[in-house]
Structures
1.
Amino acid sequence: MIVAAILGYGTVGSGVAEVLETNRESIAANVGEAIEVKYIVDVRDFPEDARRGLIVKDFSVVEADPEVRVVVETIGGLGVAQEFTRRALEAGKSVVTSNKELVAKKGTELLAIAREKGVNYLFEASVGGGIPIIRPLTQCLAANRIDEIYGILNGTTNYILTEMFRKGVPMESALQRAQELGYAERDPSADILGVDACRKICILSDLCFGCWVDPDRVRARGIRDIAPEDVALAEQWGCSIKLLGRALRREGGIYAYVEPHLVSRDHLLSEVSGVMNAVAVRGNAIGEAIFYGAGAGKLPTASAVCADVMDVAKADGTRREMGWSPAREGWLGDIRRLPSRWFVRCGQVPAWAEESVSGAAGSAFVTPAMSEEELEARLGDLAVSACYRILD
Ligand code: HSE
């Protein structure tokens, strides 16, 4: 029997307990032995909960119990999540997490402790909710040189955009529903402002390109400024507007950022709606591969966490080699220099525009490929209402 402890009994933590119980037999058959949750660590009381007998308030109980082989951290954030993860790894226990903030900010150090202690620190659920992406990148696609990875990495904002622009629901109501459905972060501004997607693209960039990217140095633009006129004109031109995280290898280095983009209706990502996420990977052998699935929510996220728990259970003392080097000066290119074509909503269409579109929502034009610096210089005094990169 493999003994586990869950830290944090919120949406994801309770989902993990539920999946381990519901699929107990098939999981045991796959692993070769049963997985038993011995403790759930949470500071709150759950007097009505069927698992109340497992709740402990003191993490030291888990830390000191030699029976516990795997610790599931679903507390979220830095703070105690970071402290308990470090202590669990130092106590020789593997840790599995859905905590993208912790992996993005402190993963380098935590993976180093795991390596030193001969245990695993696994985080499949930190990106794309239930979509398998970390394991495909580190295993199935490992023979490639990855040149680019991009995608819809936040379920809450994709859900809100779908509700707002396909169903006419106001942003606040759509956000409230996303919170009720368990998609949003505790502080949903992390979703809306692109901060959550930024943490995820940094983790993907770390894994694909092999060097840590600090999320605080990556520019993130969220969905707050997307106007109905932008969406109407983009659609008239044959595109959806999607919030994308993107990391790519170019001559000037690695570029990483989060921004709303125009995505052509011919591209699979334009059809990804609601809470679904999709991640596209470009490798020099595979070409392009796209991973699609539920990007947030209790059970989809728990699905990924439980798979990692099973992986630890089957690892039998071996380690999954995974990681990246510490930050390197000059690794990240200046995003303002990355060329793109741009979609500009503006009352005037300049002579140098490649194409333009106009209708009830006003007018917009498409620029040739140029950097943001060049774009700003070219736009000069034009009265620009909005400006988006076009995904090419
Ligand atoms: N708030 C996140 C999202 C949860 O909406 O994608 C999953 O990481």
2.
Amino acid sequence: MRVLKTIKELREYRKKIMGKVGFVATMGYLHKGHASLINAARKECSNVIVSIFVNPKQFGRNEDLDKYPRDIKRDIKLCKEAKVDCIFYPENKEMYPGDESTIVDVEKVTEALCGKFRPTHFRGVTTVVIKLFNIITPDIAYFGQKDLQQSVVIKKMTKDLNLNVEIRVCSIIREKDGLAMSSRNKYLNIEERAKAVTLYKSLTKARNAFKEGIRNVKELKTIIKKEVDKIIKKGIDQIQYIDIIDINSLKSVKKAKKGDAIAIAVFIGKTRLIDNIIL
Ligand code: PAF
């Protein structure tokens, strides 16, 4: 497995690959969710490239850029075990030399949900992802459904800008108790970790109610809110949003239907967790 740090090296490596290239973009601190994306790429592509880059442009001013977890040794080990062919591991100045004047900003689908609370986040994501696509020129890129809005935004950018890459969205990988895998789970202390499972619990409760015939959005949201409220300590934890949305437009629906998603974002202490479930 190669670990390449410069765009030039990566481009030279890429030129020599004949078969399909699968790409998994990450910010490192890899877990089983990333491994499942790598495995999906492995199945379809003869070459798998993983990028590891903590992208400063997608963090807001008061967000966790400096304390974002990093462990490159562990990441390299995981990638080797998952039979990754190449890691692209650029430094900040390689990706952002400091003289850039271009950002890629996808409109509308970035306005609701996380975009409402993290107004500069998605343009940071789309700018780095299009840069990575241009550097790596993958045939297929794999993203997780855990970041549902991100996957919709990237699909929209790919379509609108006629990017020559197929986007695959892979299912959420969960811990045994249902908590969606995320690098940020590392921030949770024991008490917070125990509370965190409530996100998934509340979503499944609402999905069960949907299966039993409840279509009223208010009713479904109340089921979730009631469950989450049990763990909310006033002044410490906070529900950011609970929404039932169409998975293409990300617009809130008036009446829930099969294929819609319930999405949730909650602060448990200082840690912001998101999750979603498809009805
Ligand atoms: O999902 C992530 O980890 C990041 O948003 C991504 C896609 C690697 C861009 O920095």
3.
Amino acid sequence: MKFTILTLFPDFFPGPFAESIAKKAMDKGLFSIEALNIRDFAEDKHKTVDDTPYGGGAGMVFRPDVVAKSVEAVLAKNPAAKLIYPSPRGKTLNQKKVEELSEAENIVILCGRYEGVDQRVLDHYGFEEISIGDYILSGGEIAAYTIIDACIRIKTGVLGNPQTHKEESFSIAGSEFLLEYPHYTKPAIWQNSEVPEVLLSGNHAKINEWRLGKSEQITKKNRPDLWEKFLNNKTK
Ligand code: ADE
């Protein structure tokens, strides 16, 4: 799997992926990241990438001609690449979407800055807009980190134990609507606080029941929207 990042800040990459499990997966050739500087595709002597918005207003907008050249350069090598434009205006990323994206061989992530990118270039190439949440970041790069990280941990080999990702928030007990139960490890008593007794019992049926109960409790409290979906799904 290859990620190509179109950005004004190529030094952001590989960034956090040069460490830890991601580095091992990269060394094994499971995925790669290449960052291209959009500015390198500007043709005037000032290397201009943006201009003022038609219709007025604050900020600057990436020029479609410059962005198009960077996109064409990537598509020339990977014509079937999936094109993503991180934007607070997109559909919110969820685990289902991550699973879909992680199937792609080539993903291009165009990182906007300022007011964003001329709409025509997004429409022309069919960029999918993806938001990572209801808040505004200063550019697409941090959102790109999130998308890349979520995809690569799904790829075989990033997680040592495939069971790990079957049993975490968004796939508890076969439900995509429950959040994960709490975890405990040694010491059994810490700061006068004991590990829940059932976890020491060795009774796996009881442990699973306790974990499911906790998952339900946490989901109900923290994410009433998911809890509602869980209940609706159960009655189907
Ligand atoms: N760019 C700026 N804010 C963003 C967000 N919330 N999600 C994705 N890309 C963004």
